[in-house]
Each structure stands twice: as structure tokens, then as C-alpha cells.
Design brief:
Elements (H helix, E strand, L loop, with lengths): L7 H17 L7 H15 L6 E6 L15 E2 L6 E10 L1 H6 L5 E8 L11 E7 L13 H12 L7 E5 L5 H10 L2 E5 L3 H7 L9 E7 H14 L2 E6 L4 H10 L9 H4 L5 E7 L10 E2 L3 E10 L4 E10 H4 L11
Parallel strand pairs: 1-3, 6-7, 6-8
Antiparallel strand pairs: 1-2, 3-4, 4-10, 5-8, 5-9, 10-12, 11-12, 12-13
């Protein structure tokens, strides 16, 4: 296996920027598939220029009936290093289609064989926190206990904590437990990659993520948390008997806790995300007279480097190189 010698996250920036600019054209137009298709097409256009031999381990194929970069697909130039790839062309397709906040174009890489592949088990119970509360949480413990632990780590009262939770019926027990403990809640409709990362970003206003959300999103968010020092614990969550049977056949444990190393077991993880619509983490795409402006976060776990990049894009020049940046006609 060839180890990466450079910061591949800086190569991914061009991929997530192109996807964000393509997807943002469809903001508020009510067509989720158009959002996804535009982002996927833009990613496919740029990915062959990234020098890596990548295999998509975390894609959209198992959960979304939409244009996708599917699990098992090979991406990149085909040259070393060999990498696992997690990709979500738009984390928050519905948010983008409805004009909501916080959608991201996301990619993450880790050394080959290091990412968990949950297959058809597309949901997980999750808890995530930032670096100050790392080592203080326990998915097996009651929610009030975890809230007290996080409050102590952050030198706050429980009443001053904010938990972020996907607003789904399956998460009502989590919501009830947080309310009973006296903490505050931020309910979100989509976008739990951004939500998990927000727990580890100072001044985001988010202290802990709780609830059942996507397995692909969990692995992708774990890549970011590995870079910035946060922690996530998860447990695979089966929706029905067929998924329980699948887990048994595939040797996947539905009861054990999967920690950070179980999600991504690599010392060199790369992550890039570009805002599609503005949220707590990143500003969305803003179109100008001759192009667009983007806001991206880039991370590498090996060095602990986190960069926020604001870029200005000239479509008249980029359009000569690739149609990923072509303005609509």
C-alpha cells in the first residue's frame, strides 16, 4: 500500500466546490433529483484529475434512489495512493431544493480498507461531541448522564447545553429525554454531517448530537471529527426484520457500540466540504456577475490542520477547462 505524501484534501476542494456551485443553481426550485444530478455530474467531471486510486465505500447507492456515486465505484486518476472514499454530493438535497439552510457538498478520504462499510444498514444511533468532551460520552448510558458529562466538560449547566437532533418520529425518545433533562434542542430536517461537525466547531452553538440518522453520514462525519479531535459513538439500527436478517448474514453487530476507530481506522484522513446553502458551519454559494464565491472547510487528521477557504470563481475562464463550471443556458 502506498501512503499519501501530500494533503489530498486540497485536491478535493476543487471537487466539492464544483459540486456546490452546480447544486446551488437549483436552490429553492423544489427538485431534489436535479440538485443531486447536478452535483454528481460536476464531481464526475473533476474527480479524474485527483491523483489517487479511490474506491467509493460510502456513497448514496444503498439509501437514495437518485443520481449517485455508488458504492464500489472507482474514482480518481487510478494512480497511488490507494484510498477509501466517502462522498455525499449534497448532504441536504431536500434542504437545497426547498431553499433551506446548511446543505454541504462533502468528500472524505482515508487509507484503503479503513472505512466501515455498513451496506444495507443505512441508519445508526449516534452521539457526537467536540474535543473538550471527548472520552466523556457513552452511547450505552442514559441521555441525562451524557448531558451532565458534557456540561461538566464544557463548564456549563445542563440547561445551557444545546443538543442537535434530526426531527424524525424515530428520534422522539431522544427529544423527550433531552427536554426532561432541561437542555435546549435544535431540531433539523436534514444535514446530520454538518450537525455532527458543528459539535466540534467553537462558537457553533451546538454541544452534542443525538439520535438516529444515516450510517453513511456517520462514517463521513467521523472522518471530519478525526481531523478536529471530536468523538462519535454509534450503533447500527435496523428498520425491520429484513435488515436484521441482513445484519446476521453479513456478520454485522446490531448491539455493540462502534467508536471512532470502528468508523474510520486510519491515521491519515482527509475531509473537504463546501457550503451549498448557508448554515452554522459554512456560507453557501453566492453567484456574481461573472462567476461565484464559495466557502469551504478542509481538514487533515495527520497534521490536525483545518483550513477555511473563500474562493472566487470566474466561469468564463473555468468554462474553457471543464463544463463542470458552465453557467446555465
Amino acid at each position: 500500500m502506498t501512503e499519501p505524501r501530500r494533503n489530498l484534501a486540497l485536491d478535493l476542494v476543487r471537487v466539492t466546490e464544483a459540486a456546490a456551485m452546480a447544486a446551488a443553481r437549483h436552490q429553492g426550485r423544489g427538485d431534489k433529483e436535479a440538485v443531486d444530478r447536478a452535483a454528481v455530474d460536476a464531481m464526475r467531471n473533476i474527480l479524474p484529475t485527483v491523483e489517487m486510486d479511490g474506491i467509493v465505500v460510502i456513497g448514496e447507492g444503498e439509501k437514495d434512489a437518485a443520481p449517485m456515486l455508488g458504492n464500489g465505484e472507482r474514482v480518481g486518476s487510478g494512480d497511488p495512493p490507494q484510498m477509501d472514499v466517502a462522498v455525499d454530493p449534497v448532504d441536504g438535497t431536500r434542504l437545497t431544493a426547498e431553499g433551506g439552510p446548511g446543505a454541504l457538498a462533502v468528500m472524505a478520504l482515508a487509507t484503503r480498507g479503513s472505512m466501515l462499510a455498513p451496506g444495507r444498514l443505512v441508519y445508526m444511533d449516534k452521539i457526537a461531541v467536540g474535543e473538550p468532551a471527548r472520552g466523556q460520552i457513552d452511547l450505552d448510558a442514559p441521555i441525562p448522564h451524557n448531558l451532565r458529562q458534557v456540561a461538566r466538560a464544557l463548564d456549563k449547566d445542563v440547561a445551557d447545553l444545546t443538543a442537535i437532533i434530526l426531527d424524525r418520529p424515530r428520534n422522539q425518545p431522544h427529544i423527550d429525554a433531552v427536554r426532561a433533562a432541561g437542555a435546549r434542542i435544535r431540531l433539523i430536517r436534514d444535514g446530520d454531517i454538518s450537525a455532527a461537525i458543528a459539535t466540534a466547531v467553537p462558537d457553533s452553538g451546538i454541544d452534542i448530537l443525538l439520535g438516529i440518522g444515516g450510517s453513511p453520514e456517520a462514517v463521513t462525519a467521523a472522518c471530519a471529527l478525526q481531523c478536529i479531535g471530536g468523538e462519535m459513538q454509534t450503533r447500527l439500527w435496523a428498520r425491520d426484520d429484513s435488515e436484521r436478517e441482513y445484519a446476521a448474514a453479513a456478520g454485522l453487530d446490531l448491539h455493540g457500540v462502534i467508536g471512532m476507530r470502528g468508523l474510520v481506522d486510519s491515521e491519515d484522513v482527509f475531509f473537504a466540504a463546501t457550503g451549498v446553502t448557508s448554515g452554522e458551519l459554512l456560507d453557501g454559494v453566492r453567484y456574481t456577475a461573472d462567476g461565484a464565491e464559495t466557502h469551504t472547510v478542509v481538514m487533515r487528521s495527520y497534521t490536525g490542520t483545518v483550513r477555511f477557504i473563500r474562493a472566487t470563481h470566474r466561469f468564463d475562464r473555468l468554462g474553457k477547462i471543464t463544463d463542470a463550471y458552465d453557467p446555465p443556458r
